[in-house]
UniProtKB/TrEMBL annotation:
Name of this chain's protein: threonine-phosphate decarboxylase
Catalysed transformations (reactions): O-phospho-L-threonine + H(+) = (R)-1-aminopropan-2-yl phosphate + CO2
Cofactors, names only: pyridoxal 5'-phosphate
Name of the gene this protein is made from: cobD_1
UniProt keyword annotations, A-Z: Cobalamin biosynthesis, Lyase, Pyridoxal phosphate
Aminotransferase class I/classII large domain boundaries: 23-351
Pfam short name (any one): Aminotran_1_2
Ranges that cross the membrane: none
Principal EC category: lyase
Function: Decarboxylates L-threonine-O-3-phosphate to yield (R)-1-amino-2-propanol O-2-phosphate, the precursor for the linkage between the nucleotide loop and the corrin ring in cobalamin.
Gene3D superfamilies: Aspartate Aminotransferase, domain 1, Type I PLP-dependent aspartate aminotransferase-like (Major domain)
Organism field: Desulfoluna limicola
PANTHER family in the cross-refs: HISTIDINOL-PHOSPHATE AMINOTRANSFERASE-RELATED, THREONINE-PHOSPHATE DECARBOXYLASE
């Protein structure tokens, strides 16, 4: 397991001698508007379900998700967060050489490393605002059996349209493409605009419930792929890997009809407005360059004499946790990532950045 994830509020709280609840976590990418209204009460009413085994393959919630995408439940697996599937990929796909479109989430490489698969990076450049043409990915994939693409990407926030991913995958039927759509619901109607809707034979789509619905503690995510690939993944999925409370939460969310559709629309509207405001304020500040993003996390480059480590420390002393991005492979320079929260907290962060940046 790597130790480079964001969100380690427990360590910072211990160092500062405060409780984790007193830390403002702007390092992990969770929906500031979540969880959806009524979910907590629903879960409280479902506590008694923990005295029985949950449905072994989470079939009910898989059926609900299938309905949302308009696909067959047989093409879906439910697991203990998408993390369960990321670490199953090298075994299920028989990955020997993976190409990871970076800079990106570290676990794809860690999963390859864990199972002895070689992993190389195809790195996007800041001069192109970290955008990557899928045609270039298809071309660079010669000699690789698996390609990982996070869409929208963490930490750069860049996004590729589903039709372009479809064209890329169709141009390379010899390669398996893993498309991590964990952040797609922040950018668009992720059911209507997912790559999963094309039912491509060589594509695996990951869908996390943790981020947009803000239930990372429940650990639930989905994998969507062709029947043939599902058969391979099924060999590595543990029985009951989605616990009873997680299944109850997803049932509430995916049966939520209009209320949840409204929640998702409001999330997208809030994210856009708040991110635009935040980025506009940063653009006027010295020593920092924000990169436009399709998501509510914003990656920024710091200019000397500012460093990511110094800014991290200065904000940590104010009990604010941000992501120092210097350990992202392929990100050369001093980068930090801010995950936006409510307006008041974001405004406080802007004031602190004014104070600390030179
Ligand atoms: C891009 C990406 N994919 C997957 C995950 C894992 O999410 P989960 O296992 O909670 O679904 C994360 C978590 O930060 C992430 O950033």
């Amino acid at each position: 397991m790597i130790i480079g994830h964001g969100g380690n509020i427990y360590k910072l709280a211990k160092d500062l001698g405060v409780t984790p609840a007193e830390i403002t976590d702007m390092s992990s990418n969770l929906n500031p508007l979540g969880p959806p209204e009524g979910l907590m009460e629903h879960l409280a009413s479902k506590l008694s379900t923990i005295v029985s085994l949950p449905e072994v393959d989470a079939g009910h919630i898989k059926g609900l998700l299938a309905g949302k995408y308009g696909i067959s439940p047989s093409t879906i697996l439910a697991g203990n967060g998408t993390t369960e599937f990321i670490y199953a990929i090298p075994r299920a796909l028989g990955t020997k050489r993976a190409l990871i479109v970076g800079p990106t989430y570290a676990d794809y490489r860690d999963a390859c490393e864990m199972y002895g698969a070689e992993a190389d990076f195809l790195v996007s450049q800041k001069e192109n605002a970290f955008c990557m043409d899928p045609k270039d990915i298809a071309e660079a994939a010669d000699g690789y059996d698996t390609v990982f693409l996070c869409n929208p990407n963490n930490p750069t926030g860049t996004m590729v349209a589903a039709e372009e991913i479809k064209a890329m995958a169709e141009s390379r039927p010899d390669i398996r493409f893993v498309i991590d759509e964990s952040y797609l619901p922040f950018a668009c109607d992720s059911y209507a605009e997912s790559t999963a809707r094309y039912g491509l034979e060589n594509v695996v789509v990951l869908n996390s419930m943790s981020k947009v619905f803000r239930i990372p503690g429940l650990r639930v995510g989905f994998l969507i792929a062709s029947d043939a690939l599902i058969a391979e993944f099924s060999k590595y999925v543990l029985p009951w890997s989605v616990n009873a409370m997680a299944q109850a939460a997803v049932d509430f969310i995916l049966s939520g009809g209009e209320a949840i559709d409204t929640f998702l629309k409001e999330t997208r509207a809030y994210v856009k407005e708040e991110k635009d405001r935040f980025v506009a304020a940063l653009e006027k500040m010295p020593g920092i360059t924000p990169f436009g993003a399709e998501t509510y996390f914003v990656i920024c480059e710091l200019a000397a004499p500012n460093t990511a480590a110094a800014l991290w420390t200065a904000l940590a002393e104010e009990a604010i946790l941000i992501r120092d991005c210097t350990n992202f492979i392929g990100l050369e320079g001093e980068f930090v990532r801010f995950s936006l929260k409510d307006k008041e907290t974001n405004t406080r962060l802007l004031a602190l950045l004014e104070k600390h940046l030179r």
